[in-house]
């Protein structure tokens, strides 16, 4: 029979804690990224409506997923777009936000189990006249994929967190590029009280 004294029990607790920590514990992830510190995109409209995407085939998140691609895209729209005009309105929409998973290698005696992550986010900004006509728009899209080792729920969550963060970094760059290219006549760089310009001709969204 083995007996454990109070002192022996106290000494064994750190060992037990270390053993537990070595398992598939929940990942210590960073807080969700924010976008308010980035250069504001000042649209010459009276107000901007940021629409929350509803359920549908273009909105999908395969768990575990610490960060929601759709929620992050909405946050980007809210924190980066600023209305500075006196008439007209803007509208920000998340057209698609998908984080999907599929088994890569099922694993075996000499191979590790892997999975493939795919991320796709597409957003749109529209400029509407007072009568509701759409007079200009810009779209931005990002796609990423990665094949990662599947070591359990914690590693899968970390991989999902990383690909969404990387995808949002890419989307931020593409979003600003497309607005400056396709909505340049609506972006304010001077006095915010300048009059609202007339409709501009829509341009191709394909980068040369």
Automatic annotation (TrEMBL):
<protein>
    <recommendedName>
        <fullName>ABC-type transport auxiliary lipoprotein component domain-containing protein</fullName>
    </recommendedName>
</protein>
<keyword id="KW-0732">Signal</keyword>
<feature type="signal peptide">
    <location>
        <begin position="1"/>
        <end position="17"/>
    </location>
</feature>
């Amino acid at each position: 029979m083995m007996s454990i004294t109070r002192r022996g029990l106290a000494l064994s607790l750190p060992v037990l804690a270390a053993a537990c920590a070595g398992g598939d514990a929940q990942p210590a992830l960073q807080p969700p990224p924010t976008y308010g510190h980035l250069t504001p995109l000042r649209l010459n409209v009276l107000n901007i409506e940021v629409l929350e995407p509803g359920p549908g085939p273009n909105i999908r998140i395969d768990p575990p997923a610490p960060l929601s691609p759709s929620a992050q895209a909405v946050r980007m729209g809210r924190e980066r777009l600023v209305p500075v005009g006196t008439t007209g309105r803007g509208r920000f929409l998340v057209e698609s936000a998908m984080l999907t998973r599929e088994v890569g290698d099922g694993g075996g005696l000499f191979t590790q189990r892997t999975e493939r992550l795919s991320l796709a986010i597409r957003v749109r900004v529209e400029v509407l006249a007072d009568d509701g006509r759409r007079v200009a728009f810009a779209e931005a899209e990002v796609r990423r994929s990665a094949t990662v080792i599947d070591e359990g729920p914690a590693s899968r969550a970390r991989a999902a967190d990383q690909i969404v963060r990387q995808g949002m970094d890419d989307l931020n760059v593409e979003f600003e590029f497309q607005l400056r290219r396709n909505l340049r006549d609506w972006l304010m760089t001077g006095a915010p009280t300048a009059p609202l310009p007339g409709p501009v001709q829509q341009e191709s969204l394909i980068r040369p």
